Amino acid sequence: MKKPSMISILLFLTGLLCIIALIFFNRTTLHQILTTEKEVDTISEQITAKHDEVKQAVDNYTTAIDTVQSNINRMKQKQQTATQKKTKEKAEIPEESSSKPSVFSQNSTSAPSDSSAGVFSSDAETDGHIIGIDPGHQSESVDMSAPEPNGPGSSEMKAKCTSGTQGTYSGVPEYQLNLEVSLQLKDELEQRGYQVVMTRTDNETAISNMERAQYAAAQGAEIYVRIHANGDDSHTASGALTMSPSQNNPYIPQLFEQSDRLSRCIIDSYCAATGFQNLGIQYTDTMTGINWSTVPVTILEMGFMTSQNDDLKMNDTEFQKTMVQGIANGIDSYFAS
């Protein structure tokens, strides 16, 4: 048998190496293709998830816009009704000055005169406990930037009043929300047999935080409940809380125990009714409206207007009825304990 030549052997080996190389290349390529397909599937899933997130965000934004527009329309309707009412009243009574000065003399801290008392709501003739209700803040159209003492005899001065925060999702100003809830609370308390003193019944009355506390006490209020809403830069904070003077308050330390009990009764009942997170009581000695009070006092921060859940619920007409029930239940609890 003739031996193969060296050239034949080399050709055979070369061919064999080529075959082996092709097999290895095909396996590597197949692995790369499978890996790439998995990566493509992963990216596709991520894109789908992002698409769903964007769609949800768009839906939330659309809902918020619709709510804002609804609230704006509601406020316009209320303003139109108020304007028509004022026009009718002007036609029935002699024309008065268009300006609304403070219900207190700038040089006196005494109670307002009988002529100014008509700006407010009180019912001193009926039986029942007398409740002072203060709808916090007021319209920015009223300039209340002038300073007043932070407390009796205090050298620290603070602005007489501010307009407060605003709903991030509802677009409703805090002063408007506070007034809406307070007016409903007045009606509910009166139905329960209480007398109610309101520090304001519109958004333009010029009355400072100090004057509000003095007015409520001068009208015989046994407790002073200040209605507010909260705000936070994070937009994640939510829930309700009450604010009370501390045990070491330099102006009204004698009101600590009763104010603390009032604050506890209201926040517990309010959160039980609304389902809002109960953030408890915060003790503060920096609030002018607290420091000038001469009766047990609390501030209810009903919820965060920077929280989508809190803001939209607080500005829902039906939910406001639940809020009012919770506050009134807390006042019942205070007088029952």
From TrEMBL:
<dbReference type="GO" id="GO:0030288">
    <property type="term" value="C:outer membrane-bounded periplasmic space"/>
</dbReference>
<dbReference type="GO" id="GO:0008745">
    <property type="term" value="F:N-acetylmuramoyl-L-alanine amidase activity"/>
</dbReference>
<keyword id="KW-0378">Hydrolase</keyword>
<feature type="compositionally biased region" description="Polar residues">
    <location>
        <begin position="99"/>
        <end position="119"/>
    </location>
</feature>
<dbReference type="InterPro" id="IPR050695">
    <property type="entry name" value="N-acetylmuramoyl_amidase_3"/>
</dbReference>
<dbReference type="GO" id="GO:0009253">
    <property type="term" value="P:peptidoglycan catabolic process"/>
</dbReference>
<feature type="domain" description="MurNAc-LAA">
    <location>
        <begin position="213"/>
        <end position="332"/>
    </location>
</feature>
<dbReference type="InterPro" id="IPR002508">
    <property type="entry name" value="MurNAc-LAA_cat"/>
</dbReference>
<feature type="region of interest" description="Disordered">
    <location>
        <begin position="72"/>
        <end position="165"/>
    </location>
</feature>
<dbReference type="Pfam" id="PF01520">
    <property type="entry name" value="Amidase_3"/>
</dbReference>
<protein>
    <submittedName>
        <fullName>N-acetylmuramoyl-L-alanine amidase</fullName>
    </submittedName>
</protein>
